[in-house]
Amino acid sequence: MYRRFLSPYVHRLLSVATPVEFLAKNTSIRSQILHIGAHEGEEASNYANLGFREVAWVEAQPEIFEKLKMIIGARFCLQGAVWSEKSILELNISSNSVSTSLLEFGSMTPWKELETLKRVRVETLTLADVVETFNKRNLLLEKFILVLDIQGAEYEALKTVGRISRNVHAISCEISVKPTYENGAKRRKVIRKLLRHGYIPLTSFLDSDTLHGDQLFVKYPNLFLRPKLIFVSLIRMTLLKLIKLKNSKLSKEKK
Predict the structure, then answer these.
(1) 251 in a domain, yes or no?
(2) What is the pLDDT of residues 105-155, one digit of tens each?
């Protein structure tokens, strides 16, 4: 009896692919989203299906940004690379486009087939700059979810998160356990940074081979108003550890 109940439940829990989806399925949160590292807005239909109707998008690549505007609409889009300060930096355009970053690929990057095709100079913005611009368009005026997907530059972007943290009740941050990008956003470093601003790390969504993916953080007061979120997150993290231990054991037995 328990097996029949547990198996579909475990499957549903582990099949959740992103922090935003996890929040949507375990809370009533349907606030606006600020998605930084938009590319062509591939997540737009998923956000809409989950009930998020207003999403603000930021994309650094000039050519991709023009496509994004056509797909999403100019009011919801902003061009710029989010960093710790306003400046002009070189953006490394990767051969698959989606791995484009302000940082160089690291020595231990799992994507050995990728290369940098060219470098373009782009304007950088801080998180506060981005929010201020969208506020003028009557977006992000209330609490929102921050999605950071900027290929290793997340830690630099988070250096100014304190200036907007009162309006950000949850963060989905791309992270790596290994140095995927030179001086990139390693998991422990990001966790320490966000803990100082009152964000509690919950479950992660990492690729088991590359150890690269996303981590969910929820602001301290909001988190403890949602006990279900804590409970389900703990269950998911425990299941992932058990699966990892089992796979490790099977691997040793084969040797």
Answers:
(1) no
(2) 987 788 888 899 999 999 999 999 999 999 999 999 999 999 999 999 999
Is 252 inside a domain boundary?
no
pLDDT tier at 2 (50, 70, 90 boundaries)? Answer: very low
The contacts of residue 35 (CB under 8 Å, 6+ apart) are 43, 55, 56, 57, 58, 147, 149
Question: For the domain that residue 155 is a member of, what is the CATH number?
Answer: 3.40.50.150
Domain of residue 177: give its range.
Answer: 10-237
Q: 196: exposed, middle or buried (C-beta count within 10 Å: 0-12, 13-18, 19+)? A: exposed
Q: Residue 4: inside a domain, yes or no?
A: no
In a domain, 128, yes or no: yes
**144-148/77-79 β-pairing:** unpaired
d(CA 99, CA 93): 8
The residues, any chain, with a CB within 8 Å of residue 182's CB and separated by 6 or more, are 103, 104, 105, 106, 107, 152
Backbone angles phi and psi of 162, in degrees to 5: -60, -25
Contact 87, 136 (CB under 8 A): no
pTM for the model stands at 0.90
Nearest residue to 203 via CA among 221, 227, 229? 229
